[in-house]
Write a structure and sequence with these properties.
The structure holds 2 protein chains of 2 kinds.
Chain A: H1 6-21, H2 25-50, H3 59-76, H4 80-102, H5 107-127, H6 129-132, E1 138-139, E2 143-145, E3 148-150, H7 153-175, H8 178-188, H9 190-195, H10 200-226, E4 228-229, H11 236-249, H12 254-270, H13 278-292, H14 297-305, H15 307-310
Antiparallel strand pairs in A: 1-4, 2-3
Chain B: E1 2-13, E2 16-27, E3 30-35, H1 42-49, E4 57-62, E5 65-66, H2 72-77, E6 80-82, H3 95-101, H4 111-114, H5 119-138, H6 154-167, E7 172-176, H7 184-199, E8 203-207, H8 211-217, E9 220-225, E10 228-233, H9 235-239, H10 242-249
Parallel strand pairs in B: 3-8, 3-9, 6-7, 7-8
Antiparallel strand pairs in B: 1-2, 1-4, 4-5, 9-10
The chains are: A mainly alpha, B alpha/beta.
Chain lengths: 313, 253
């Protein structure tokens, strides 16, 4: 049990430790962003790291979740939480419908097709200004539950942390199940998976939908937390960032996805001392990590140190 | 009752006829060997019989039902399994996990259930693990259960594929060059295993180059040459068939 949910356990400890060690609200705000992007990365890792299918368009699903909590209450009078559920459902259904045809593609073709999907969603958000506010973005109402308003740095720190840990538990459960094994089989050899009775198209599609749902939840949380949303959330740069988190942190590793989110979200904040060289340093760190730790940070270090760390993948 | 049957199967790649008019039926149990010189079309035939390729012409029947063009996972549900000449192992998994994938047909396919930390799912995983350990022992791989498949030797990987195929509890098992890369002792162990499977009522169809193994093991031998069946019968009859000698040794042989 401890080994199966080691990642969630470690995340819980880190969440508590950061809470006590943080010396400013700024640290907590950055940590909140790390948790939310980490959630999206954990989800994408199911598709990329486990099932071995690339997506360069997952920010599109992030955008659907984000704009759902913006548009739902503003235009339809929905409760923000209901709007979030609607956004997640919409992302899931879209992933189900588009996943089947798109996931027949492999490698570079799949990469370009998913990139196109993400760009398409971002374009719709940009162009339908009457609904979305267009490039200027739109305000997002506060999340309110039974008269209690979700506001303030502390509150959002814990909301995001709870979502992250819940997401880690779900991902770890999946990994240790027959479905998780089927996904990894598809990754290694589609033909052998099929011969073993695995409906490859169905499992690829399932991984696509699950990762889209994670992204939509993360997008919704991001918008509710920020109180404002712009089309950038759905843009291809965001897509690239999330998949970079996955690859950098470690494909197939729940903890790795979050470590990747730390590097892409928190590290730039720590590197501000380098001023105009900040992005150069970040780029160098990313290259050095991939050269030195080819399987990603967490799996590589786990292989290096073995034993204890290996059990928490 | 026949298990696997081919009715006039033909396929061409880029205008070249790889297989032409292949027709045969196999019994419900026993060992059928398919032999022939390199390039005769043996592996292509395997790929058609197991749904990896769709034949250009002809039908494939499994237990009397037409299964032509059905994808491999549907054929697996009908009791057909196979191994590969060019290894198709899940290299990022341990040997044990490879065999556990073979259990897929007998497991719950409810993805939503698998997203939750349910004790029932964990218990199922434990049972699958124990069963897989026993299945690895069948092929003599119990000692490497927790090793990464990527670290196993060629002969071990060949046996791992067989263990994975058997984990699906097939009624028809196709083995593509199971003895390739095995030493004499391993080949003998493999023969014993195959004989036992046939005795248990599994129809085994194998492609193999080790003639000693083929002749001692098979109930029936089908010889392919240039995409056609040139001989079909018991090992002794095939061994002395003039057409077979010509195919293997050339016209002057």
């Amino acid at each position: 049990m401890a080994a199966r949910f080691g990642a969630a356990l470690i995340l819980a400890l880190v969440v508590v430790a950061v809470w006590f060690l943080a010396d400013s609200n700024f640290v907590l705000r950055v940590a909140t962003l790390v948790f939310i992007y980490g959630l999206a990365a954990i989800g994408l890792n199911i598709l990329v790291g486990d099932a071995g299918q690339v997506s360069l368009g997952h920010a599109g699903f992030l955008g659907i979740g984000a704009y759902a909590v913006a548009i739902g209450p503003a235009s339809l009078g929905l409760h923000p939480l209901l709007a979030l559920v609607a956004g997640v459902l919409l992302a899931g259904v879209l992933a189900l419908v588009i996943g089947r045809p798109i996931l027949r593609l492999r490698g570079f073709a799949l990469a370009v097709a998913t990139l196109g999907l993400g760009i398409l969603i971002a374009m719709v958000i940009n162009n339908e200004a009457w609904l979305t506010g267009g490039p200027d973005g739109m305000r997002v109402g506060r999340l309110e539950l039974f008269g209690w308003r979700a506001r303030g740095t502390d509150t959002w720190y814990w909301i995001a942390a709870a979502a992250l840990i819940f997401g880690a538990i779900v991902a770890s459960s999946l990994k240790a199940s027959p479905t998780g094994r089927a996904l990894r089989a598809v990754h290694d050899s589609e033909v052998a998976a099929m011969v073993a009775g695995i409906d490859v198209a169905r499992y690829k599609s399932a991984a696509f939908v699950i990762s889209a749902v994670y992204a939509a939840i993360a997008g919704g949380l991001l918008a509710l937390y920020d109180g404002f949303v712009t089309p950038d959330v759905a843009g291809y740069l965001t897509s690239i960032e999330i998949i970079t988190m996955v690859v950098l942190g470690g494909m197939g590793s729940v903890l790795g996805a979050v470590v990747g989110a730390v590097i892409l979200t928190a590290l730039p904040q720590m590197l501000t001392a380098f001023a105009e060289y900040e992005h150069m340093v970040l780029g160098l760190i990313m290259m050095a990590v991939m050269i030195g730790l080819r399987a990603g940070i967490v799996p590589s270090l786990a292989a290096l140190f073995g034993g204890v760390l290996r059990r928490v993948r | 009752m026949t298990s696997l049957a081919a009715d006039g199967i033909g396929i061409a790649f880029g205008g070249v006829r790889a297989l032409d008019g292949i027709t045969f039926e196999t019994a419900e149990a026993g060992v059928t060997a398919i032999i022939g010189p390199n390039g005769a079309g043996k592996t292509t035939l395997f790929n058609i019989l197991t749904g990896v390729y769709r034949p250009g012409r002809g039908r494939v029947r499994l237990f009397g039902e037409d299964v032509t063009g059905e994808p491999p996972f549907r054929l697996a549900e009908r009791g057909l399994s196979r191994t590969f000449q060019n290894l198709q192992v899940f290299f990022r998994m341990t040997a044990l996990e490879n065999v556990m994938v073979g259990h897929h047909l007998g497991e719950s396919h409810n993805v939503l259930r698998h997203l939750l930390p349910l004790p029932a799912v964990f218990a199922g995983e434990r049972r699958a693990r124990e069963a897989a350990r026993a299945e690895l022992a069948h092929v003599g791989l119990e000692g490497v259960a927790n090793r990464s498949a990527a670290s196993l030797s060629y002969g071990e990987l060949k046996r791992l594929e067989i263990a994975r195929a058997l984990a699906a509890k097939p009624r028809v098992l196709l083995l593509d060059e199971p003895a390739a890369g095995c030493n004499a002792v391993e080949t003998e162990a493999l023969s014993t295993l195959i004989r036992r499977l046939a005795g248990e009522g599994i129809a085994v169809i194998l492609v193999e180059h080790d003639m000693a193994m083929v002749m001692s093991l098979s109930d029936r031998v089908i010889v392919l040459d240039q995409g056609r069946i040139i001989a079909d019968g018991p090992p002794d009859a095939v061994r002395t068939d003039p057409a077979v000698r010509t195919a293997y040794l050339g016209a002057d042989g």
